[in-house]
Design goal:
- By secondary structure, the chain is α/β, with parallel strands linked by helices.
- It has 49 helices and 23 strands.
- Strands 8-3-4-9-7-6-5-10-11-12 form a ten-stranded mixed β-sheet, sandwiched between helices.
- A hairpin with a 7-residue loop joins β17 and β18.
- α4 packs across α5, α29 packs across α40 and α33 runs antiparallel to α37.
- The longest helix has about 60 residues.
Length: about 1500
């Protein structure tokens, strides 16, 4: 089954990105999950009731079956079958599988109520089904690591310090790696300790349910399991947490339970087989469903334990599963921990016996009174003793094999600092195992790095992989960089960059960058990108109307063109595409023979992109990829790698704020705004460093055209991104001031400039200073200072300092001074102010003094003047030097309030002019023109926006106008309420609308300003001031009168209404308005300077591009521009003030300097953060230090007590060991006395055997002196030949401890089984087998095995070597690839030692054999080989020959001959490989190769 639970990466995500990342349509419903479990999960039940014999069970009140369940717990057909009783009970026959009746959720009682999922499963359940249950039905995310915790099943004491270390380390490794923890699931032993660790984590962590802890327990031994039974599932099943009964209960801290049912009751250990099969299945699953192909790693953690634990460890290590043993946890774990520190030679039977007696004293006492000799005599009579004997023999054998596999064994010693913590020990154990296997797999380090990336453990990768000795190529780490980026591992990205990953090589192919965009998480940018791809594909199909969509698959993926278009939309259309569009054309051949061809740009407008100048910055590409997904850490890392860092920060700010505007989710938009502010601060920090270092370079940096960000500038990006803080920087404002003054010096006072505008000859007298003159003056002063210092100090080299030569800098001539004066934006602004005041003066004269039926000359001049203003507004509207486009330019134009007033004034003037030219509407036209004069006067406020004093106040006025606009809604409620009530009380049925509005709205509004009405009071009422029936249009209607002509309205009510209205409206609301204005002023006052500086740019740019002549003379400039651009078709003049393209060399220097300033900024930021942390640390209250001191003291006292307990127990053990040693010496002395007496004939008639402590010690001690030499000789043999499982068979070897390998050592209980893969009638004959005895000693199995014949099986390994390039001492060997895609040496079988030429002929072929035999071969080895196929009667002997080729011509000639012979090369490809420990060969051939390497090194 394919792993579908991993990270679901985008395949055709661009077409379905609208859905959530968790595909809801595929999520099974509640009822579907129940149906699936009932269909796929089974339990076991007994189908044949067979009553137990008369024993202790006979005393029970109810009959009990052989399965352990009572008669009432059996189904009816099982009881009916029992009545027919036709045989004995057999669990393989009388236990059947039926659909499970226990699944759902468990609700544990007690103080901490938890809910977990569970299922009762059969022992025969497929691991694949269980994995589907976990990942698909229970929605558990697939693991990145599987931690199997085993050990003592009963409660045992674990020291406090070791317990805390274990629990903390286990949770840390599970949390950081996303691991599954598998235990026995009950609330006893090691399972209880794991549950407590999970409980403590869940209580202290806000993220509940993160640690997946799976309990696999035997169903038949669980307490209160009856409450879990329900054929339709329990949701939930209430599980009581009582402790009554002898059976263990489930641990309530586990998250999932798999309750393994074998159909019996009260029998332990039946879940181990299914557990091991499930762990094996999970270990074969691909990690994270990635293309790297690394499987999910498995590690075994051992605490305490007995004989079963030893078998679990041994089996796991045979399956290449690393094991971590906690020393100090007790029993078997301590036995292995103590033995692991010794060489295998010293791990003898006597040592194991002492360790077992020490750490497993209770188990040892059960059989210590029997000797192995007694067990051997009673093997046939007592099967139980046979099991004990097997255990005693296998115990040292298994421990020796476990210690021998040191790469799979890690002992965590809590008292030392070798590993630091359990989590590090676990991960290092996995790395150690993979590192050893790396000698056989060339890319073993790749597995380690992949695991570290998936686990996100940078600390492990730093200490274990990226060491000082390792050398890495950038290409070797590209896949790791891709995984770290896609997996959002920013710390690994930094680590890979530090260890040699070159971003330019990493992103050299566009497919890599496209792959990164396809792997984007579900975000706003990806949804927009998907829509763009979908629209692009739809348009292409619609335009071409292709019937057979052969090429459709090529256009439905994300391409850089789509990314470029979307980024251009976010940055603004004024930028050019950051990725140039492809220039290739797609050709579609139709069936009728016609063809269509179209560029990828399609119907879009041609973009002005110079492909030759297109540049790629890989850091820019990754920064952009990180920014669009709002990944702060990755974008921070990639920004530090950017070449143009200021532009990158501002571009990221612009993109994020644009996405925030379009994002509908308020929280996501807020996160985007926060990240945009972060990068704006980065831009501010770097530019501040640049400006403090060099003002001129910093100014060039602002207006430099960036080829990496769409041919735009930093200043333009800052303005588009609304980065007010950046624009308000002193460096940016200095640049704007410099542009505002033009070629004039910024130090000129305004009054001097104003005087020179009128009396321009003063510019030739030095009255006005120009910037070139300032530069020349500064350089002259600098040269004089240098000369003065040199003359004083007498230093000559100071005068040779490189500085600009003042003589080469030219001053402005007369004409240049005049043109520079009147072309300065500052002077243009002043002339336009004068012109505008003159225009208003003329406009006022016309309206008040000279507005005739026939237009006067002054009025005609006014019209001409206004026409010149209109032409200037049209020029400003269509002038687009930045390439914004019409729509963007229109939005920007009407976004400005002053432009709206300009358009409004022009429209009103045109309307008034049209009305004025008609006789009937002559006066209406004058009224409209008078109103237009008001608008023109309001436009005059724009003049003060350039002022540093009045400019911010205008911003405050605008904000207050907005506040007052909303305040009027609140005020209108009171005005209308009082006015309507007053009008209704005073006036009866007035039908004149103007007087109704006057009384209901106008008069209450005037009351706010003190105009108190007279018609609400009898004393102030006059009948002459009103009209009785409302017939007089100039008087209001009189109120209702009595018969005596006095007002009839209630005076007290109207006066009270007036007082209340004045109280709330005039006092409360108006003071509220004042408070609002005050708040607005205080709020805006801090930001007005920043806002004014930001808005100042538009005014400076406007007058920088404005013609020099003011209206109405500006019309001449417009005419000249029209003739130049339209009639003569000349390109418009471009200014370099706001946009400068630097030469390539100068740009490289500027960017290098910017990168240096960025490094200084980052360094200073880090120093500030460290200082802040130090201040925070020093500010901690002393009480906290006191509490920590007390805790340290408590921990120290606890550790001291534990150490004293250890020391006392150690002293007692030493005393017992000395006593035991004395007893042994006494026994030896008595034995020597007995032998001496026997030699003199004084022995008794009946010899009584002397008591010895142990038969094992007797056999080992008596044979040590005789066989020590033999053991030393065979120590290197029989490591592989004594593996417990014989290869490619189900046969197991008889356990042979290390000291029992030599034939000379007595081994009376040695009874190996017979095995032969071929039918051989004579093979099992003992006499025949005795003729062939393995020279290396016992192997644990008799017969031929899988070898060709009994006795020695001769092989030859041919090692052909050469020196690479014949000039370097790099030795290479010739290898061939076999059918399993593994590299092997050329090898063959030998009939006899003299058969070498024929063997070489069979291996190499005819022509190559003749050529090779001409070379002098060297016989390096001939003898016995430790092979896994060896038996007691058949073994492998290998002859290793080395043929060294002196020149590369000979090596290539022989390889060509071998290819022509087509023998070995037909089996695989030939390849020269470097001789190293990571050669990829099998162990035997790797040893042969190492012999050749040692010989060649010695020979050289």
């Amino acid at each position: 089954m394919e792993d579908t639970g991993g990270s679901k990466l985008i395949q055709n995500r661009t077409l379905s990105i609208g859905a959530d990342s968790k595909v809801i349509s595929l999520t099974p419903t509640f009822q579907d999950s129940v149906t699936w479990i009932q269909k796929n999960i089974s339990k076991k039940e007994c189908c044949f009731f067979s009553e137990k014999g008369a024993s202790s069970s006979a005393q029970q009140k109810e009959d009990v079956c052989m399965c352990g369940y009572s008669k009432s717990e059996h189904v009816a057909d099982a009881i009916w079958t029992e009545d027919r009783g036709d045989g004995t009970w057999d669990p393989h026959v009388h236990v059947r599988e039926v659909p499970t009746d226990a699944f759902g959720e468990i609700s544990f009682g007690g103080l901490r109520q938890t809910t977990t999922k569970y299922a009762r499963v059969s022992t025969e359940t497929s691991p694949e089904v269980l994995y589907q249950l976990m990942t698909e039905q229970w929605k558990v995310f697939p693991p990145n690591l599987l931690i199997s915790v085993t050990g003592g099943a009963k409660n045992f004491y674990l020291k406090t310090r070791l317990k805390n270390i274990f629990q903390r380390g286990l949770i840390k490794v599970a949390q950081t790696t996303g691991a599954w923890i598998i235990t026995g699931g009950t609330n006893t032993g090691v399972m209880k300790h794991v549950g407590q660790a999970v409980r403590d984590y869940s209580l202290s962590s806000s993220m509940q349910g993160q640690i997946v802890t799976i309990g696999m327990a035997t169903w038949g031994v669980i307490h209160n399991k009856e409450v879990l039974v329900n054929s339709q599932g329990c949701f939930p099943a209430h599980y009581p947490m009582d402790v009554k009964g002898r059976l263990p209960r489930l641990d309530n801290n586990h998250t999932h339970f798999l309750l393994v049912d074998d159909g019996t009751y009260g029998r332990y250990g039946f879940e181990t087989n299914l557990r091991s099969r499930l762990e094996k299945f999970i270990s074969e699953k691909t990690l994270g469903n990635k293309a790297v192909g690394v499987n999910i790693p498995v590690v075994l953690v051992v605490l305490d334990g007995g004989a079963g634990t030893l078998n679990t460890i041994y089996t796991a290590m045979l399956n290449d599963t690393p094991c971590v043993v906690l020393e100090g946890s007790g029993r078997m774990a301590d036995v292995i921990a103590h033995a692991a520190g010794l060489p295998v030679k010293q791990v003898t039977i006597s040592l194991i016996d002492r360790l077992v007696k020490k750490f497993l004293s209770k188990e040892y006492d059960n059989f210590s009174d029997l000797t192995i000799i007694d067990w051997t005599k009673k093997v046939e009579e007592h099967n139980r003793l046979l099991v004990v004997l097997r255990f005693c023999i296998r115990l040292p054998f298994q421990i020796q094999d476990i210690i021998r596999m040191s790469h799979l064994l890690t002992v965590f010693r809590g008292g030392g600092d070798s590993h630091g913590d359990v989590d590090v020990a676990i991960l290092q154990a996995l790395f150690k195992a993979s590192r050893v296997s790396a000698s056989q797999v060339v890319d073993g380090w790749r597995r380690q790095l992949e695991l570290a990336i998936v686990w996100n453990r940078v600390d492990i990768a730093t200490t274990e992989i990226f060491t000082d000795e390792s050398q890495w190529k950038s290409s070797d780490l590209h896949w790791a960089m891709f995984s770290a980026l896609v997996g959002n591992k920013p710390r690994f990205v930094s680590l890979l960059l530090e260890n040699g990953v070159c971003l330019r090589e990493f992103l050299q192919s566009e497919d890599t960058l496209c792959g990164l965009y396809k792997q984007l998480p579900n975000c706003f940018f990806l949804r927009k990108l998907a829509k763009r791809v979908h629209t692009s594909c739809f348009r292409r199909r619609k335009v071409f109307a292709v019937r057979n969509r052969v090429h459709s698959s090529q256009t439905e993926g994300i391409a850089l063109k789509h990314v470029s278009d979307e980024v251009r939309h976010l940055l603004g259309n004024f930028t050019q595409p950051i990725y140039p569009p492809p220039t290739t054309m797609y050709h579609f051949n139709m069936e009728d023979g016609t063809s269509l061809s179209r560029s990828l740009s399609g119907s879009q407008a041609p973009l002005r992109v110079d492909l030759a100048e297109a540049q790629r910055d890989p850091a820019r590409d990754l920064f952009l990829w990180a920014v669009v997904q709002k990944n702060k850490e990755l974008s921070e890392i990639t920004w530090e790698q950017c070449t143009d860092c200021v532009s990158a920060a501002l571009a990221g700010c612009k993109i994020l704020r644009k996405m925030a505007e379009e994002e509908s989710d308020a929280d996501e938009a807020a996160n985007m705004q926060e990240l945009a502010d972060h990068f704006e601060m980065h831009a501010i920090g770097v530019f501040t460093k640049c400006y403090s270092e060099s003002e001129e370079r910093a100014k060039r940096l602002l207006v430099r055209v960036s080829p990496f960000w769409g041919k735009t500038t930093c200043l333009r990006l800052a303005l588009e991104a609304n980065c007010k803080s950046f624009v308000a920087l002193s460096g940016v404002q200095a640049l704007l001031t410099e542009i505002w003054c033009g070629e004039l010096s910024v130090d000129n006072p305004v009054w001097r400039v104003t005087i020179c505008m009128i009396f321009f000859p003063l510019i030739y007298t030095g009255f006005l200073t120009y910037r070139p003159d300032d530069l020349i003056q500064k350089q002259n002063k600098k040269c004089e200072d240098i000369k003065t210092v040199a003359s004083v100090t007498g230093s000559v080299h100071r005068t040779k300092t490189k500085s600009p030569d003042p003589t080469t800098m030219k001053s402005l001539n007369c004409w240049s001074r005049l043109t520079c004066l009147y072309s300065s934006p500052q002077v243009k602004f002043y002339w336009n102010i004068v012109s505008y005041f003159a225009f208003l003066f003329l406009f006022a004269i016309v309206l008040m003094m000279d507005f005739q039926t026939t237009p006067s000359p002054a009025e005609i001049l006014l019209y001409v003047w206004l026409f010149s203003v209109v032409t200037e507004e049209v020029r400003q509207f269509i002038y687009d030097p930045d390439g914004f486009g019409f729509h963007k330019k229109a939005r920007m134009y009407f976004r400005e309030l002053w432009n709206i007033l300009d358009v409004l004034s022009i429209i009103l003037f045109i309307i008034g002019l049209v009305f004025r030219l008609t006789t009937k509407l002559f006066y209406a036209g004058k009224v409209v023109l008078c109103l237009d004069f008001v608008v023109f006067c309001l436009r005059l406020m724009a003049i003060f926006s350039i002022s540093r004093t009045l400019g911010p106040k205008i911003i405050i006025v605008r904000r207050m106008m907005m506040d007052m606009f909303f305040f009027m809604f609140l005020l209108s409620i009171w005005v209308v309420a009082y006015g309507v009530a007053k009008q209704g009380i005073l006036i009866h049925n007035d039908n004149r609308l103007q007087w109704i509005l006057r009384g209901a709205v106008y008069e209450p509004y005037l009351i706010l300003f003190g105009n108190v009405p007279t018609n609400v009071d009898y004393s102030e009422f006059h009948l002459d001031s009103c009209s009785m029936n409302g017939s007089d249009p100039l008087k209001p209607k009189c109120p209702v009168l009595n018969e005596n002509q006095t007002p009839a309205f209630p005076e007290w009510l109207t006066i009270i209404m007036l007082c209340v209205y004045l109280l709330f409206a005039n006092i409360l609301l108006l003071n509220l308005l004042i408070a609002i204005f005050n708040f607005t002023f205080q709020e805006v006052q801090d930001n007005t300077d920043r806002i004014w500086k930001f808005q100042r740019y538009e005014l400076i740019k406007e007058y920088h591009s404005r013609p020099a002549a003011p209206p109405p003379f500006i019309i001449l400039s417009h005419l000249s521009i029209f003739i130049r651009n339209v009639v003569l078709c000349r390109p418009p003049l471009k200014s370099r003030k706001f946009r400068t393209e630097l030469p390539h060399i100068e740009e490289e220097k500027l960017l290098s300097w910017e990168a240096l300033m960025k490094d200084r900024y980052l360094l200073s930021t880090q120093q500030q953060q460290s200082q802040t942390m130090e201040r925070c640390t020093s500010a901690i209250p002393k009480s906290i230090h006191l509490d920590s001191t007390v805790m340290h003291m408590v921990n120290a006292i606890t550790d001291r007590l534990e150490r004293e307990e250890e020391i006392s127990s150690a002293i007692l053990i030493k005393r017992l060991a000395r006593l035991e040693e004395q007893v042994v010496h006494s026994v030896k002395g008595l034995q020597w006395i007995m032998e001496s007496l026997e030699s003199k004939g004084l022995a008794g008639k009946e010899e009584q055997p002397l008591p010895v402590p142990s038969t094992v010690e007797e056999s080992s001690e008596t044979s040590d002196s005789e066989t020590s030499d033999c053991v030393n000789e065979t120590y290197d043999f029989h490591v592989k030949a004594r593996q417990f499982h014989y290869p490619n068979s189900e046969v197991t070897r008889f356990p042979v401890p290390e000291e029992k390998v030599p034939w000379e050592v007595s081994f009376s209980s040695y009874e190996p089984s017979y095995f032969s893969s071929e039918d051989n009638t004579d093979g099992s004959d003992a006499e025949v087998l005795e003729n062939f005895r393995n020279p290396g000693g016992r192997t644990g199995i008799r017969g031929q095995g899988s070898l060709n014949h009994l006795g020695a099986n001769l092989h030859v390994d041919l090692v052909i070597t050469r020196l690479r390039d014949s000039g370097r001492s790099v030795l290479e060997f010739l290898a061939v690839e076999d059918k399993q895609k593994k590299m092997v040496l050329p090898w063959g079988l030998l009939e006899s030692p003299r058969d070498l030429p024929s063997a070489v002929l069979r291996i190499m072929g005819n022509s190559s054999c003749e050529k090779l035999l001409e070379k002098a071969e060297i016989k390096l080895f001939d003898g016995y080989v430790d092979d896994v196929r060896n038996t007691d009667n058949a073994w492998v002997e290998t002859t290793v020959y080395n043929i060294h080729l002196g020149s590369s011509e000979d090596s290539e000639e022989i390889v060509n001959m071998m290819r022509e012979d087509n023998f070995w090369c037909s089996r695989g490809s030939l390849k020269w490989e470097e001789v190293s420990s990571k050669n990829g060969l099998c162990s035997d051939q790797s040893d042969s190769l190492m012999r050749v390497a040692k010989w060649r090194n010695r020979d050289s």
